[in-house]
Amino acid sequence: MSDTPLSESDQTLEATARSLGLEFLQGVGERPPSAAFIQKIPIRYARHHCILGLADESDTMPVLIGKTASYPLLDVVSRWLNRPVLPIFARSSHVVAAINTAYQQQESQTQELVETLDRDTVLAELEKISPREDLLDTHGRAPVIRLVNLIFFDAVKARASDIHIQPSEEELVIRFRIDGVLSDTFHLPKKLQDEVVSRIKIIGKMNIAEKRLPQDGRATVQMGDRLIDLRIASLPSSHGERVVLRLLDKSARLYTLDQLGMDYDNLRKFRELVHLEHGLILVTGPTGSGKSTTLYAALQAINTVDRNALTLEDPIEYQLEGISQTQINEKKGLTFARGLRNILRQDPDIIMVGEIRDQETAVMAIQAALTGHMVFSTLHTNDAAGAITRLLDLGIEPYLVASSLIAVLAQRLVRKNCPYCSRPYTPDTAERALFGLANDSPGQFKKGTGCNFCRQSGYHERIGLFELLTVEASIRKLIQDRANATAIREEASALGMRLLRDDGLGKVFDGRTTFDEITRVAARANIE
Fold first, then answer.
1. Is the dihedral of CA 411, 412, 413, 417 positive or negative?
2. The dihedral of CA 493, 494, 496, 501: what is its sign?
3. Strands (DSSP E) found in 9-74
4. What are the pLDDT digits (tens) for 89-133?
5. Cα(109)–Cα(118) distance, rounded to whole angstroms?
6. Which pairing describes strands 215-223 and 226-237: parallel, antiparallel, or unpaired?
7. 166 forms bridges with which residues in the sheet?
8. What is the per-residue pLDDT across 201-232, written as a single tens digit (0 to 9) for each?
9. Chain Cα centroid distance, residue 377
10. DSSP designation for 7
11. CA geometry: angle 353, 290, 223, nearest 5 deg
12. Contact, 383 vs 500, CB < 8 A?
């Protein structure tokens, strides 16, 4: 049931339902949609007339109606469905939300379409495109347009972060990166390669005639009520143009600090650090290790009405309420260094710099931290201690680093065990030997066997591994002496820092991930 007062149009709906002796729902609830309705009725028609069929075992199909004017159309819907219908009135906003959810959950038709495509057919309407594509609306589209939309739809539904369009000598392979791991998803006929690539380049407003030079493009597609930003990059290869698309879901939820996967001690320390009045906090790790997610969580934790928070990002991945966010544009001359110089004139309390890429940006970030601002940024280093030596390598004076830097958080992402198919198991001798575990080491070890929910991978979603180095007096002394990363890491460990590998083992012991995942991430990170 909904406690929100009825709008004027909804009051008219309720009165109409009452006069017709029909039911009016205050809330749609969890009633499942009809698969037959979704298959036969295009989403454009359902949205325009605000109607949705519900699953029912009887001969008569219940149909939600959110517009009074749609009631006379039920005879048409009944003929399309070839069965009688029972109208049920409901709030229009509830019906629209139910329509979007229902069509998002429809089964993918991509592979079926791939098997029936004909090259001569797909050429006809290739360049037809609306300003913003809706991935749920494939009805009546040219086959290649429908194919590309369905590929995007499958990628979003599978929570893919990237789509790879990779040509080979005999076929076009579509690959998705899901939870950080790349895998083949579809195999298209080679004869459709040019049409599929051209369609994607049109969406990204790229030059389809230029096939010998790399190009970049951007676009926004829609999936029901979700907006997905696409970053598109093409690259010539020996078998044709290769295209990679990065997907940024604008409606994806933002995480809070306690949802990232930090253990109790790291979470408590990090909360205290981000609430300090001034200083520099760095988050380090390779591309795709969750650095931006951590920074967004930190900003949410300290963003209050009495503090002015500004960010410089490339790209802006999520919109943060109450925070001024600036998009870096190096082509126009707006670099991190130049943007940071101008941000300091905006009277900030909190500054987030997307990445420290050069000496100029590093110097300005440190100066901002020393002059009373709280500064967050990222670096690409293997571990927390390596961030300190990277700053020194950029030419920053040791005394400036020692005075401004208050903490470095290194992180990685590992896949979590699937909640549906993971089962308890006993680690074998090789796993115990690799991680130095005794045969009687306690732990709730689990591993996924593979199911439809996790796409047979045994994993679903990811969790962070963290290594938090706080800059204590002894660490400052090492920085001023230009000590190497090994010496700094050893001192930080003596002060209680938990290494990435140890944090990962803790999550293996409580059944959240596996030894294989820790080995995969540790090998890539060169963690010892």
1. negative
2. positive
3. 24-25, 51-53, 61-65
4. 988 888 888 887 777 665 444 444 444 444 444 444 443 434 455
5. 16
6. antiparallel
7. 173
8. 999 999 999 999 999 999 888 776 678 889 99
9. 20
10. P
11. 100
12. yes
